[in-house]
Amino acid sequence: MARLGASAPVASYTRRNIPAYQVLDDAALLAIEAQADWILDRIGIEFRGDDVALDFFREAGARVDGQRVTFEPGHARSLCSTAPEQFTLYARNPEKNVQLGGDHVVLMPGYGSPFVSDLDRGRRYATLEDFQNFVKLTYATHWLHHSGGTVVEPTDVPVNKRYLDMVFSHLTLSDKPFMGGVTSPDRARDSITMARLVFGPEFMYQNAVIQGNINVNSPLIYDDTMSGALRVYAEAGQCVCVSPAIFSGAMGPLSPAAVAAQTLAEGMVGIALAQLVKPGCPVVFGSFHSTMNLKSGALTFGSPEANLATMVLSQLGHRLGVPVRSGGGHISASNAADGQAMQDSVGAMWATLLSGAHQVWHAAGWLEGGLVMSYEKFIMDLDHCGAMMTLLQGFEATEEAFGRDAYLETGPGENFLSTAHTLRHFATANFQPDIPEGGPFETWSENGSLRADQRATAQWKTMLSAYEPPALEDSIKTALSDFVTERKTAMKDEWY
Q1: Which pTM does this prediction carry?
Q2: Which H or E element spans position 211?
Q3: What string of DSSP letters covers 311-358?
Q4: Is-contact 365 379, C-beta < 8 A?
Q5: How wide is the angle at C-alpha 214 spanned by C-alphas 208 and 217, nearest 5°?
Q6: Residue 8 pLDDT greater than 50, yes or no
Q7: How far is the C-alpha of 90 from the C-alpha of 445, rounded, in Å?
Q8: From what superkingdom does this record's organism come (predicted)?
Q9: pLDDT at 80
Q10: Are 176 and 139 in contact (CB under 8 A)?
């Protein structure tokens, strides 16, 4: 397993070279942090059905009354202090290791959609083939740095078994970092066991190679499924991402300030539990939030209020001293890969990347508020991911960048197309998207008048047809396959 050594490189294209945007000043951030402390002191967080978690908090000095845990102001934050500010998440291919924290940005595909859509077959329930397709597409693009987790729900596989197929797919069809199962503590353990078969127990003892997504049952509840899975990942020293999910007006008050404070309160308690289980456990402070249409009750995405909360939560996470997973990304409530979808998505993604978030989920494919992963929107989003990552690089003001020799080759009124400077840089000077059509109307019309989503259809089909799996030792793949078969054989099919 020498190829997994700690000296492996980190992809340079995950770094930002422009500063994060600061929305609030210190006084406002302190007020939000004080409100989070007020929630934890006066209201508290319930851990339902998890006596082990309650014992951890009781022993740490928190107040435990039944299933509810309350904290003196500042106590929860102090319990988070052993979490690393930055860490490496190792990939099967060392060249695809990523850093979480610092000036790094890690993009991931969408997560959790039960449906998929494409222009050929329309909207339908997702299958294991769809799941595998999106893992392949994610592997094939360099704009997504992480394979994701439950990219879509493979509904043709029993609920209690599908996590095995998903982890197997991530480990065999891709060599990027990935996420494991969290829908029960046993499924979390199986995911970690599969990772050990690939990375080796000694390497995993000291390094994070897998993430678990722990959703808070907002408002202010951790159920035993989530807290139990959190403890499994933490015990193994693997990455725990704690993600409150607050829809303003439903799971918390309406204002961005209240959403930010409640998210911080819920997130700190989950991070604290991970640190109590194993001090130094790598964690990510996550969020998923949206506003509502208060006339209809429908969720909205990319709204200015939600985007402001996204930016403030990154500031709060930086102050907490842990990597931040943004609640944004290319998210939309639209039912099609249309103008509304891209308007929602661009607004949310701009706020996310300018905020200084370190890990961005739902960076490609999401429609209908996450109910659908669209093949076409996935490709359209990839183009925007590339544009945004290029923007984050900034530009250099160097002697070569100024191109003085080009001025000396030409004169006033002459063009620069054939200068040596242009010829040196034409291939890399500008970001080149894959699907936009910038030619004249006549050419576009002669080529079939294809819309962006239609051109995206051709692109995802081309990517899948060209896919070749990354190398994996036969013995490791056999061990994984045997483990999956053994575990599935021991279970009865459960469809609900």
Answers
A1: 0.95
A2: strand 210-216
A3: HHHHHHHHHHTS-BEES-SS----SSSSHHHHHHHHHHHHHHHHTT-S
A4: no
A5: 170
A6: no
A7: 47
A8: Bacteria
A9: 98
A10: yes
